[in-house]
Amino acid sequence: MQTVTLGKTKLEVCKNGFGALPIQRVDKKEAVYLLQKAFYHGINYYDTARWYTDSEEKIGAAFAYTRDKIVISTKTGAQTAKAFWEDLEQSLNQLKTDYIDIYQFHNPDACPKPGDGSGLYEAMLEAKQQGKIRFIGITNHRLAIAREAVASELYDTLQFPFSYLASDVDIEVVKSCQEKNMGFIAMKALAGGLITNSAMAYACLTGYEHVAPIWGIQKESELDEFLSYNHKPPALTMEMALKIEQDKKELSGAFCRGCGYCMPCPVGIEINMCARMSLLLRRAPQEEYLSKEWQDKMRKIDYCLHCNRCMKRCPYGLDTPELLRKNYEDYKIYF
Fold this sequence. Notes:
It is a single chain. By secondary structure, this protein is an alpha/beta fold. The chain folds into two domains: 242 residues, TIM Barrel (Alpha-Beta Barrel); 62 residues, no CATH class. Helix 3 links the parallel strand 5 and strand 6. Helix 1 packs across helix 2 and helix 2 crosses helix 3. It is globular. The protein starts with a strand and ends with a helix. The relative contact order is 0.11. The mean pLDDT is 94.
């Protein structure tokens, strides 16, 4: 089984990390079953967040008696020290633990630092001194903040989008983490579902020995797919390399990554899916996205207010209303 050491933390985790955002979409019994199956087949790292509704609660239910055998990271989106402590206590309670291995600032608009007036980083230090957290991490989708976090040397880990679609500047961030002995946790390793070949995605990331991918898992079939890589890691073939280059050309430039930070929409448009519908239709089975349910969702684009809230929130600086318009026009071709 391939493992990754998360930089200066010395935490050794399976190359297959379990991203627990999707388990909020299944009932508790099913979630606990998936989590425990993952554990008993070698996955020892689980990433969640306070914002992921009942995800923490499900992890707590699954691992109350095996806590010392796994690594848990969770996140706070708090913007004040008071809210930080409330989040932390709630996470500890839901996870049924008295400590969190990696506590992360969840996609902040600015990189928390000592003396910045927010009190957030000072609260992290106090929580660490109290033994409630072991290591301090940060997650982000913005390149500038990721770079700032690495350069600050204030953080033990960075969680950042990374897949074989990564640009040269993204790869620089990954390499700088290695140079600083900072753990790198790769989210969006399947580019929000646009990468449909998990073996190819896994094989590409094996070339970065210090990168720990977390895969969003919701179904047992998905779990089984990744568990198979524990025993027989896929190797990067020439055929895969050619397909990766083809994907990079197709997905270069302005495309929605599906992160969802543009939401909610005041008229209920499911932006993180609708703004990349053209790509989804071409890269995934079409039947699902051509259903009446999805037709109704796409029609909501007609009611866009052009308030530009989504565009202002987009961490990638995309013209989201224009992407929605183009995707809707393309969608209509199928009817």
